[in-house]
Structure to design on (171 residues):
């Protein structure tokens, strides 16, 4: 019997999360990200920037299911590589765990596509990420993640605005 794919499992988990009562309180995070290569990029990639969208479905007070879509444009060393224009798009799902109200850790996995515009090289791969973040107020999310794509590693800093966050009621 054939095993279901990992993408089908992630989709099933997100669907199950949508059916829980807390999922009605879904939150959307949108913001810029700044990225530096850590390993596997060679010497011609210096840094990157882009934007990300994160949908958070609270399951319990301290646990959320997250879906993450992001875009990264890589900046190259023009002296070494004249024609290289490299972009990256990712779609991932995972879990966010809160320790208290302000701090969280998270992990996710999913697919990534890399596209070289002038080099005509395209490929996609599976990747994973771990990260942590801080919520200085109810509308701001500052996060740092280590992303791994096969042999490539990158470090991303995100600053998101959070939509759909309800004000906490005081008893």
């Amino acid at each position: 019997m054939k095993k279901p794919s990992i993408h089908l499992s992630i989709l099933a988990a997100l669907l199950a999360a949508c059916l829980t009562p807390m999922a009605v309180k879904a939150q959307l995070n949108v913001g810029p990200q700044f990225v530096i290569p850590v390993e596997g990029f060679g010497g011609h990639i210096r840094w990157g920037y882009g934007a990300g969208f994160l949908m958070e479905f609270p399951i319990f007070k301290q646990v959320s299911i997250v879906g993450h879509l992001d875009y990264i444009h890589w900046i190259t060393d023009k002296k070494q590589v004249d024609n290289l224009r490299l972009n990256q798009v990712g779609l991932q799902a995972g879990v966010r765990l809160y320790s208290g109200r302000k701090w969280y850790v998270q992990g996710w996995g999913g697919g990534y596509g890399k596209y070289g515009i002038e080099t005509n090289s395209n490929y996609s791969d599976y990747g994973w990420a771990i990260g942590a973040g801080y919520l200085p107020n109810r509308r701001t999310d500052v996060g740092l993640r280590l992303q791994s794509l096969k042999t490539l590693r990158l470090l991303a800093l995100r600053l998101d605005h959070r939509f759909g966050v309800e004000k906490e009621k005081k008893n």
Residues 6-18 form the longest helix (13 residues). The beta strands are 27-39, 45-60, 63-76, 86-99, 103-116, 121-137, 140-149, 152-163. The chain has one domain: 6-163. The chain has one helix and eight strands.
